UniProtKB/TrEMBL annotation:
Keyword Cell cycle applies: no
The species this protein was found in: Nocardioides caeni
Sorted UniProt keywords: FAD, Flavoprotein, Oxidoreductase
Keyword set includes Flavoprotein: yes
GO molecular function annotation: flavin adenine dinucleotide binding; N,N-dimethylaniline monooxygenase activity; NADP binding
Family: Belongs to the FAD-binding monooxygenase family.
Superkingdom field: Bacteria
Signal peptide range in chain numbering: none
Name by which UniProt lists this protein: NAD(P)/FAD-dependent oxidoreductase
């Protein structure tokens, strides 16, 4: 796909305006790398926190860790923040950063192709004005690890005549009051949605394939005093943030080295079940048979009581098909519904953006990853794809702490790489195959004893080869240590053949 106009030259093109893309823009700007453009398919900043507006959407990472280190937020209202508050925070940070003039909204990246001669990425984007082309020295993909909804492949799903939508694309025009509703999936999204739906719908069927370990959510509002302290006492909020960070990191050995310690979490989960559900049969249905932590541990005080409510049925028979008017399970029973909510998660180990990126040898990143499994050097750069940086790339997601810590570590590395390119007069850098292979082998070795790899469940952490290519298998500060400096000696480099474009983009 190509546009007809002359490409706009930019130094840097960033894909996505969520936490990752926004941080990249801010840090490039601070480094004097002001010639960049951020392409966002949504209509505003915020990424997942702008798009996910389902009822009950809240973060399950403590608020104190859910802000940039360079823009703490003393105004969080609760220990765990609601979606709207997080989105408003990103919007405020974006406005205050003075970078919004270089963000292009409602525009999707269609193709990014490496032009070895020009040492640039030719990027075709599509927005309200049609196709447009950029030629960028570097591309940073901050498209998000959990952004592209994955729909289940269920026979007949297209024949359903009622309203149907994915949890991440909530249709607020549909009035659910008194309706017969089904939710397919019981992951982090469903666990928040179901208790809200239970209050308004006539009847709710929740289709569970695998139960999750769910522990209590220690939720509360911050007091006026706490908020005043965060705002006015120098260093106080940073201190609290460090304490929360330390508490979460202290749990890593149980996930990574001694999964038998996760029994303590299972005890908490079982108590949560006993507290929320009266019916012994229902209790048995929601009790997982694998090690806690194998799938993301969920937190909720409302999920079990909602399942136990009179207007809710938990259906554990496998779904056989979907008809015009309902869902049929393997026992032949059809349950009629008016609205179908699909909470079946996202493309994670096969990120759709990879299909749009073509590297040095003319192969797409999707093709490479489909053959070899998702892999990147330091979770950020990929052999065969010069000057491409991936935020929240392979083995960078977390099962225990805040992804923003990882994002900031990666952004620092990207900015350092950009500075290295400029300082040394380089036109292209890409990690050597050996560097990438060694990195991936080390991850695999560290991943082996973890509950995330061997906890006895199927999860979105694992790819089609059974490898955990999504999570970082250790403490986040070790990741940050690895990325503290751009290690150019691990890269194949090319001198710059053309002078950098001086164009200033003002969209
Ligand atoms: O998606 P999921 P999610 N037929 O993939 C089931 C983050 N997040 O959107 O377990 C029937 O976890 C599937 O069953 P199974 C967080 O990192 C954070 O809920 O595969 N069922 C599972 O129950 C989270 O982990 C927050 O057997 C099918 C569910 O659908 C991640 O996003 C909030 C099926 C999918 O669960 C994803 O969460 C929300 C099929 N064909 C999300 N296919 C917070 O911070 C799948 N399922 C609070």
């Amino acid at each position: 796909m190509t546009a007809t106009q002359t490409p706009t030259l930019v130094d840097h093109l960033v894909i996505g305006a969520g936490f990752g893309g926004l941080a990249t823009a801010i840090k490039l700007d601070e480094a004097g790398e002001t010639d960049f453009v951020v392409i966002e398919k949504d209509s505003d900043v915020g990424g997942t926190w702008h798009i996910n507006t389902y009822p009950g959407a809240e973060c399950d990472v403590p608020s104190q860790l859910y802000s940039y280190s360079f823009a703490l937020n003393p105004d969080w209202t609760k220990v765990y923040s609601p979606q709207q508050e997080i989105w408003e925070y990103t919007r405020r940070v974006a406005e205050e950063s003075g970078t919004l003039d270089r963000f292009v909204f409602d525009t999707a990246v269609r193709d990014a192709v490496w032009d070895a001669g020009a040492q640039r990425w030719n990027v075709t984007v599509e927005g309200p004005q049609g196709l447009r082309e950029y030629a960028a020295r570097t591309v940073t993909s901050a498209a998000g690890g959990l952004s592209e909804p994955k729909l289940p492949e269920i026979a007949g799903i297209e024949s359903f005549a009622g309203e149907v939508f994915h949890s991440a694309r909530w249709n607020h025009d549909v009035d659910l009051k008194g309706k017969r509703v089904a939710v397919i999936g019981t992951g982090a999204s469903a666990v928040q949605i179901v208790p809200e739906l239970q209050k308004v719908v006539g009847h709710l069927d929740v289709y569970q394939r695998t139960p999750n370990w769910i522990i209590p959510r220690n939720e509360r509002a911050f007091t006026a005093l706490e908020k005043a302290v965060f705002r006015h006492v120098p260093g106080a909020q940073r201190l609290v943030r460090s304490a929360v960070y330390g508490t979460l990191e202290a749990r890593v050995p149980a996930f990574a080295r001694f999964p038998q310690l996760m029994r303590a979490v299972e005890m908490q989960g079982k108590k949560n079940i006993a507290k929320g559900i009266e019916d012994p049969e229902l209790r048995a249905k929601v009790t997982p048979d694998y090690r806690a932590g194998c799938k993301r541990i969920l937190i909720s005080n409302k999920w079990y009581p909602a399942l136990d409510a009179d207007n809710v049925d938990l259906v554990t028979d496998p779904i056989a098909s979907i008809t015009e008017s309902g869902i049929v399970t393997s026992d032949g029973v059809e349950r009629p519904i008016d609205v179908l909510v699909i909470a079946t998660g996202f493309y994670v180990t096969d990120p759709p953006i990879a299909a749009h990126v073509t590297g040095r040898e003319g192969r797409t990143l999707a093709d490479v990853w489909d053959t070899e499994g998702m892999a990147a050097y330091k979770g950020t750069t990929v052999n065969g794809f010069p000057n491409l940086f991936f935020l929240v790339g392979p083995n960078t997601a977390l099962g225990h702490s805040s992804i923003i810590f990882i994002i900031e570590s990666q952004v620092k590395y990207v900015v350092d790489a950009v500075r290295t390119l400029r300082r040394r007069g380089l036109g292209a850098v890409e990690p050597t195959r050996a560097a990438q292979d060694d990195w991936v082998a080390d991850i695999r070795r560290k991943m082996k004893p973890t509950v995330w790899q061997t906890g006895g469940c199927a999860s979105w952490y694992l790819d089609k080869f059974g490898n955990n290519t999504t999570l970082w298998p250790g403490q986040t500060f070790t990741f940050r240590g690895h990325l503290s400096q751009f290690d150019v000696e691990k890269y194949a480099v090319e001198a710059l053949r053309t002078s950098p474009a001086p164009t200033k983009i003002k969209e």
